[in-house]
Each structure stands twice: as C-alpha cells, then as structure tokens.
Amino acid sequence: MKNQIATFLLSAALVNAAEKSPAEPLWKPLFDGETLSGWTNAKGKEVKEGNWVAEDGILTRKSGGSGSLITEKEFGDFEFAFEWKISEGGNSGVKYRVQNYGNQVLGLEYQVLDDSKHPDGKNGGVRQTAALYDLKAANEKKKLKPAGEWNQSRILVKEGVVTHFLNGEEVMRLEIPSEEWEKRFKASKYKKNEGFGVNVQGRIMLQDHGNEVSFRELKIREF
User: Which end of the chain is more exposed for a tag (fewer CB within 10 A), N or C?
Assistant: First the structure.
C-alpha cells in the first residue's frame, strides 16, 4: 500500500511539474527544400529562381541576378539553425534583425567566409567566419571546415543577448545593448547608422556577395 501511495505521489508531482514548465518552442523550416517560398528580395518582391537555385533540399547562390534573399516574416527572439558551405575564396553571410536604414538594408551578421583564401580573412577575426561581422570575433573554440565542406551553425537571439555557434561550439556572445556593445559599435563600420543592432525585431537575410554559397537544413524556433 505504501508503495502504491508513493508511486501515486511521484506521478502527481511529475504531472504538476510538467504543467508548470513551459513547452519548448517547436522548430519550423525556413526553406521547404524545393522552392523560394517565404523569401523575397531586398525590396520585398518575389524572387524567381535565377541566381538562387532550390534543388534536392539545398539552396544555392550560383550566379548574379536577384541579390540577397530575405524572409517575408520578421522575428523577435529566436534560434536559427542552418548548414552551409562556401566556395573556394568565397564570401557570404547570414544577417538577422534586418531593417532598412535609409537606402541600405542592414542587420547583425553571422559571417560566412573562406577564411584562408578570401581577402577579408586577412582583416582580423571580426571579418572571419562565425564573427558578429565587424563587431566581435569568434573565440578560440572555433573549428571551421574548409571551403567546399558543410559546416553547422546556429544563431541564438534571446533576452538581449546574441550568441553564435559553429560546429557544436559556442564561439561568440554579446549583450545588446551593453557597454561592450557601445564600444564595439562606435569602432565599427555601422557607427553612422543610428539605432543599428538594438532593434528587437527584423528579418533574416542570406547574403549574395557575388560568390557561390549553399545552405540546407534551415530551421527556426521563436521564443
């Protein structure tokens, strides 16, 4: 009888704890693997396949034409996971909290680069892969696979903190706003763009920087 009572009390406690614990947000795909549905160009217009090709679950920027891809939807706090590979000597990036600043479309950027062969790789860690571009470099945990091989990345934006991950390791974290943010912002290329980076919502952009880059397994969950 005592064992039955104990089992009942334990079950009740577990149910009560489950009811009080908020459910983990669900992951949702940002790319259906076949089309450019849900993405626009910088002007918010429909993108027709041209320089971006959706095929066999992979989204590839192959040649010039329609520019960067931007989500139709804006996101607040989120976690975005994606896999990518860059061409030899190539440059791209994933921008988030993207907004219009005059005639520019700007956002915080997870740098995607062939660090060893693209010229920007020689401009310090703030211009290399997994950096918060021109603001904060990736740390010593960074393990980058070479051009032509798939890397796994995540961007976590939650409660005023942005965090970058690369191949399973946390490689960059920055609170926005903060004293560190202000110092880095004033030393960056963005310093003339008032309000840059501190907006709490924005779109996600896959950058067309003139080089071939591929993305797959793009998924997001919102907090």
Answer: N
CB 167, CB 173: distance < 8 Å: no
Phi/psi at 2 (nearest 5 deg)? -60, -40
* DSSP 3-state of 2: helix
The span from the CA of 121 to the CA of 72, in Å, is 31
- Tokens 């980058």 identify what position? 144
The answer to whether the peptide bond before residue 177 is cis (omega within 30 degrees of 0) is yes
Separation of alpha carbons 113 and 128, rounded Å: 6
Q: Which amino acid is at 81?
A: A
| End-to-end Cα distance, the chain | 44
How far is 111 from 130, CA to CA, in rounded Å? 5
Place of tokens 């202000």: 182
Inter-residue contact 81 to 153 (CB < 8 Å)? yes
Could you read off the pLDDT of 33-66 as tens digits, one per residue? 999 999 998 888 888 767 899 999 999 998 766 6
Is residue 174 within 8 Å of 180, Cβ to Cβ? yes
Burial class (CB in 10 A: 0-12, 13-18, 19+), 74: middle
Contact criterion met (CB below 8 Å) for 192 and 58: no
Do residues 161 and 173 make contact, with C-beta atoms less than 8 angstroms apart? Answer: yes
Q: Encoding tokens for residue 39?
A: 């993405």
